[in-house]
Design goal:
Chain lengths: ~150, ~625
């Protein structure tokens, strides 16, 4: 595994241990998750124990230690979305892809995750697909969205 | 080429020049580029304006301003035209040429783009829209006067004047002014900002210290900090520089959620521009004062809104709070005195310095001064961000500004204060917005989320929702919070599943007490609030679940059934088409079309064994024939 990217990311953050969260965010942006070897490299570059890197990587919900799918679907579970039926939509998506929240489809096309609030409360319920916001969702719009994502599989 | 500002005189000269440049154009089109409007595709509208202005060669006469959030997210995309002041909403790309031709150049108002009031009349100007009429937009007003990424615009509308004024004052005098203003922290705690600054200034003499901006807006249902940081980042930066000068800090941090990419981007641009202009860095405005700000992105943990957890996270550690018998104001980040305020608090600072503490203290109530931005969301007609003076009644926000509940439903509750807050019923709507009043009522101000709930919201389900949220977000350090909240969730799950027992409510109350007493930080200390407040005000709903095995709001799946009213079913098959389990099928009885029994069409029915209660049929039915009981 070529880890020169990781070196560059750490360098860009001045190899500072207090920048660990930012570094892990950039590493995750590179690999779409946090693989084992890059994490070890981060620990070497910053000269901190791997246990510290691992604790941070597992504490924050933004990080994933599992490979993620090509499409990342975030269902907002904030209060405003909840009262407007977000849970129902989440269940619909779970049925649509046959996975539970937090899982990735077998063909690695879709990872389904929940977020505790994406801060677009006025548009609730909100579903974010690959950082694109889909607001004012209902059952019909969600089933269309599911089909679109399924169709994007190449 | 960016001009470097070295003195107050430079700043004023630049301001005069920039003002002149701004006024040289005859027309301004301000399009809201906030996150809400982005959800409606405002970037396409903006691009259409850009192309239209270019193709008509109007560049010299028309300024296109892409601003931060205007607040009225319900009706986006939004645009304001100057100098006419015409306010358009729900704009489509196709409307753009007409807006320029008819309204901007022709002074003719386009009827279909105007806001329609409840009585059917149309509002031409923003101030005539009820949503805006009762607001007092102090912090938010500048959002629509500037390009979100332009320091020049911010300076042109008076930006950094407060900083120049502050440098002419002694740090102690600034702190006195802040104390006198009565500003209390907008992040939830409501601590007096001036007093916090004073503690930080006096702690550990001679050592370095920090100012931190908390933009880790984790409260579900609140997004005002996002909108301020996205739309007017310099107001936050200016507030931070003033604060840093007052307490004697040379380093600052903005801790912002990574889920807010536009806020991160705009804050980065703003820091870069401020630095290049010399408003950050060494010897700012010739004052001899050095200060710089670093952006730190959060990792998505609600508990990091808590000061000690946030500082641990800034140090690159996991966000676990610590006991606060030693305050972070004395021993915070890297064990140095640290002044943490949230986005909205910082952006209040320039106003107080500019206009004076007496002016500021004139707004609001005896114990809560100034204005507060709320995110008015949920089951409400006019969703969006509203800024009101403290002391306004909840009823005014929900009904006058928010327009009440949509679809003729009945108001049930308004939730304030996020997962630490509570749900207030209709009888509490005459409560004033005030830190102490809300706490007394069993809720709290929090960061300013107001989530409105109607008759179809189940309050036991809401209590379960928040408890589940807190189970996931508890950092796990204190056993009462980690285990207690989880067990409370278990009980609430049982109640919602129709397996509640007599004594469950009392058990929840008893556990709440233990969790409040036994947790270190505010997350655990307030975790039972949603449960306690719903028990306090909506006990009848708990009783209905436990005793009658019924969910009055029709939400809890185990306690409801979906049926079809044959008298209303027209046999259109809409329900059958969307039903994922083929539970909605045609029966052998005739449908009712226009009041008559049909010969051909069959009324539908739901096979209960197959029904998973997903609600797709009731959403699809246009004739209100699907009943939930």
């Amino acid at each position: 595994m070529d880890l020169s990217h990781v070196d560059k990311i750490c360098e860009a953050h001045g190899n500072r241990a207090d920048q660990l969260i930012g570094i892990l965010q950039d590493v995750q942006a590179q690999y779409r998750y946090l693989p084992k070897h890059p994490l070890e490299r981060v620990s070497e570059c910053l000269n901190i124990p791997i246990a510290q890197v691992f604790s941070v990587a597992t504490f924050f919900s933004a990080f994933s230690l599992e490979p993620r799918g090509k499409n990342i679907v975030h269902v907002c579970m904030g209060t405003a979305c909840h009262v407007r039926g977000a849970k129902r939509l989440l269940e619909e998506i779970e049925r649509g892809f046959d996975i539970a929240a937090g899982q990735t489809t077998k063909d690695a096309n879709v990872t389904l995750e929940t977020v505790n609030c994406v801060g677009a409360c006025a548009l609730g319920p909100v579903i974010v697909v690959n950082e694109e916001y889909h607001g004012r969702m209902d059952g019909t719009k969600t089933s269309k969205l599911i089909e679109t994502i399924k169709g994007s599989k190449k | 080429m960016t001009q470097t500002i070295k003195t107050n005189k430079d700043l004023e000269a630049l301001r005069t020049k920039l003002k002149g440049q701004r006024e040289s154009r005859k027309y301004v089109i301000t399009v809201c580029g906030g996150t809400g409007c982005h959800g409606y595709g405002c970037e396409k509208v903006i691009e259409a304006f850009r192309q239209e202005i270019a193709s008509q060669k109007l560049d010299k006469d028309v300024e296109l301003r892409v601003s931060g959030c205007h607040g009225f997210c319900e009706r986006g995309p939004l645009a304001l035209l100057a100098p006419s002041g015409v306010f358009y909403q729900r704009i489509d790309v196709a409307d753009v040429p007409e807006i320029i031709k008819k309204t901007l150049l022709g002074k003719e108002v386009i009827d279909k783009l105007l806001y329609v009031r409840d009585d059917g009349t149309k509002a031409v100007h923003e101030k005539d829209v009820p949503f805006y009429a009762k607001q007092n937009r102090l912090i938010f007003a500048n959002n629509q006067r500037i390009n979100a990424d332009s320091i020049e615009d911010y300076i042109a509308v008076g930006g950094y004047a407060a900083l120049a004024k502050a440098f002419a004052m002694k740090p102690e005098a600034i702190i006195e002014e802040m104390k006198k203003s009565g500003l209390r922290g907008r992040g939830g705690g409501g601590f007096l900002t001036g007093r916090k600054w004073e503690t930080v200034r006096k702690a550990q003499p001679g050592e370095s210290r920090y100012v931190i901006c908390n933009a880790d807006e984790g409260d579900p249902g609140a997004y005002m900090d996002r909108s301020v940081l996205e739309g007017n980042p310099h107001s936050v930066i200016e507030g931070m520089v003033i604060g840093a000068y007052a307490i004697g800090a040379n380093e600052g941090y903005i801790y912002v959620r990574n889920e807010y990419p536009l806020a991160v981007k705009n804050a980065r641009i703003a820091l870069d521009r401020a630095h290049k202009m010399g408003l950050l860095g060494k010897n700012i405005l010739g004052s001899g004062f050095d200060f710089d700000i670093i952006i730190s992105r959060g990792g998505g943990a609600f508990v990091c809104g808590e000061s000690t957890a946030l500082m641990a996270s800034l140090e690159g550690k996991i966000g676990e709070p610590r006991a606060k018998y030693v305050h972070t104001a004395e021993y915070g980040l890297w064990n140095r005195p640290s002044c943490l305020n949230n986005v909205e608090t910082w952006s209040n600072v320039p106003f107080i310095i500019n206009k004076g503490a007496d002016w500021y203290a004139g707004i609001g109530t005896a114990g809560s001064k100034g204005t507060k931005i709320f995110s008015l969301v949920g089951k409400i007609k006019n969703t969006g961000l509203v800024e009101v003076p403290m002391g306004v009644k909840l009823r005014e926000i929900v009904f006058d500004i928010g327009g009440g509940i949509p679809n003729g439903k009945k108001f049930k509750a308004v939730q304030t204060g996020g997962p630490s807050g509570g749900c207030l019923p209709e009888s509490m709507l005459d409560l004033s917005i005030d830190f102490d009043e809300l706490t007394k009522a069993g809720s709290m101000m929090g960061s300013g989320g107001l989530i409105v709930m109607d008759e179809n919201t189940c309050m036991v389900d809401i209590a379960r929702y928040f408890t589940k949220f807190l189970t996931e977000e508890s950092c796990g350090k204190c056993v009462p919070c980690r285990e207690g909240v989880r067990h409370m969730l278990g009980i609430l799950n049982r109640i919602c599943d129709g397996e509640g027992k007599e004594g469950d409510i009392e058990l929840l109350e008893e556990m709440s007490e233990a969790i409040i007493d036994g947790s270190l930080c505010a997350l655990g200390g307030t975790a039972p609030n949603p449960v306690l407040s719903t028990i306090r005000y909506f006990r009848n709903e708990y009783d209905a679940h436990i005793r009658d095995r019924k969910c009055p709001a029709g939400v809890c799946k185990a306690l409801i059934t979906f049926t079809v009213d044959e008298e209303k079913c027209v046999g259109c098959r809409a329900c059958a088409k969307v039903c994922p389990t083929q539970a909605a099928v045609a029966s052998d009885r005739p449908a009712t079309v226009k009041g008559k029994k049909s010969d051909k069409l069959k009324a539908h029915t739901i096979i209960q064994d197959k029904c998973i209660k997903c609600g797709m049929c009731s959403e699809a039915c246009k004739f209100d024939a699907v009943k939930i009981k």
